[in-house]
Amino acid sequence: MEKFQIQMLTTIEPARRSFIICLVILASLIHPGLLAGQENSRPPNIILIMADDLGYGDIGCFGNTEIKTPNLDQMAKEGVRFIDFHSNGAVCSPTRAALLTGRYQQRTGITGVITAKNHREVGLPLSEVTIAEALKKEGYTTGIFGKWHLGYAKAFNPVHQGFDEFIGFLSGNVDYHSHVDQAGFSDWWRGEEPFHQTGYSTDLISENAIDFIEKNRESPFFLYIAHEAPHSPYQNRASKADRKPGGAPGIDFPVFGSESDFSLMLKDMIEIMDETIGDLFKALQAFDLSKNTVVIFISDNGATTVGSNGNLRGFKSSLWEGGHRVPAIIHWPGFINAGWVSEETVLTMDLFPTIMEWAGVQYDYNLDGISIAQHLLQNNPLQARNLFWQHGKDYAVRSGKWKLLLADNENIKLFDVETDIEEQYDVAEKYPDIKQDLLDLLESWKNEVFK
Fold it and tell me: Which of 53, 183, 197, 253 sits between 20 and 30 A of 405, alpha carbons compared?
């Protein structure tokens, strides 16, 4: 509420003033930003940036001194950095399914990577309600630019999953220059149609996203920027295209690219992505949208052996912490206190209900995620809960400080991840009751989500 409006209330007789204040409070329950100063009570714009295979130790504000990420570091200084944020999956597609649905990906049937070679008719079921569909019903314009990885067939295209606009690729990764996927198909689309754009994929994703912001700056929007970086093939702006249409992976072109120094390429790829994130913030400032836009930055899983997961054990495709504990930052000036660190345990699927609350959307969807909105706005602690992961035949369950790993249905390990974040000391024999309790929780969860 603006200052002059507050002053005018003081001149109204007490009974009427009380009635008006009640109306304002009621309105704030519908649009939570009203009492916090949100201009014209317009719900916030939401920008969700997802990096691909970015590890817990791959950016500056998470301890990397070799890779320069000044824009992400500044985002963390002005917002909140999460040190116990986890991707729902240890690989790409499952995490993206959980992100868009707010539910464990096992409920959707997306439990593994939707590959370009073997799963071209598989996708996120249209019966699932995506975050884009939910926001679109409330008047948001929705767009996704970059990686989809939730279905190749036209039926599963993002434009049928709540997105008004899509430019990007359907597969797990494309050549950054030729935009050819792992199976040798050209893979760059506008909606359902092939789309030719010349350029480095990270730059194109950013440019298309900023165009979307400019076109839709007068009304609330949800923008999902799904970066390819720093997923292989390891190529920077100066690299040559390695893939061509019709090529065979590993024969006509190397799967990981032809550059000899993958680590150097990864550094360049992350720094280029950071540069484009800086361009995004400049655009928000130029369009006078900074104060009414939430920007969320996360990764879809941990780093491969080329990247860094800091002091965490394991890498992508594993259920060690290095496979799913990922960097995360949320930025909303004037609403989220600057420069603080959240120690709460958060999963990708929690973003759906959080965004719903910020947007003032009432819903009755059956979600597994919980809203962290009040934790971020008022530093309220999150409710205690049990959390689960699955990758192939491996499972993990987290309850408070305890994490149990079950590998191939027989190898059981138990860790206190508050004191042993590196997962070096298996205490399963020391705490057999806790081990059994977690195994029972895991069995109940499996029976519920695998139907």
Answer: 53
User: Contact 94/394 with Cβ under 8 angstroms?
Assistant: no
With pLDDT > 90 as the criterion, what percentage of the chain qualifies? Answer: 85
8 A C-beta contact, residue 319 and residue 90: yes
Active-site entry in 31, 149, 160, 331: 149
Full domain range(s) for residue 413: 393-449
Looking at the structure, tell me whether residues 209 and 354 fall in a common domain: yes
CATH number at residue 350: 3.40.720.10
133: tokens are 């569909």
Q: List the catalytic residue out of 31, 92, 231, 324.
A: 92
pLDDT above 60 (res 5): no
Q: Are residues 146 and 275 in the same domain?
A: yes
Task: Give the CA-trace dihedral at 287, 290, 293, 296, to 10 degrees.
Answer: 120
Q: What's the rounded mean pLDDT across residues 75-90? A: 98
Residues 228/234, Cβ–Cβ less than 8 Å: no
**d(C-alpha 254, C-alpha 257), whole Å:** 5
Alpha helices in 287-382 (DSSP H): 321-324, 351-358, 373-378
Q: Which tokens in the block code for residue 56?
A: 């817990």
Q: Measured in Å, how far apart are the chain's first and last C-alpha atoms?
A: 49
Q: Are residues 369 and 296 in the same domain?
A: yes
Q: How confident is the model at residue 1 (pLDDT cuts 50, 70, 90)?
A: very low
Strand 85-86 with 141-147, pairing: unpaired
- Entry pTM: 0.91
Among candidate residues 386, 402, 421, the one where a domain is terminated: 386
Parallel, antiparallel, or unpaired for β 189-190 and 193-194? Answer: antiparallel
- Evaluated on CA atoms 268, 147, 294, 58, the torsion sign reads negative
Give, in order, the Cα–Cα distances in Å from 287 to each of 137, 166, 206, 222, 291: 25, 22, 16, 16, 11
Residue 13 maps to a domain: no
Q: Do 359 and 419 belong together in one domain?
A: no
Q: Where is 346: in which H helix or E strand?
A: strand 346-347
Tokens of 339: 């420069």
Check if 92 is active-site.
yes
In a domain, 210, yes or no: yes
287/410 same-domain check: no
Residue 2, judged by CB atoms within 10 A of its CB (0-12, 13-18, 19+), counts as exposed
Q: Is residue 80 located within the same domain as residue 170?
A: yes
Count of domains observed in the chain: 2
**78 and 128 assigned to the same domain:** yes
User: Is 90 exceeded by the pLDDT of residue 120?
Assistant: no
Enclosing H/E stretch for 101 = helix 92-101
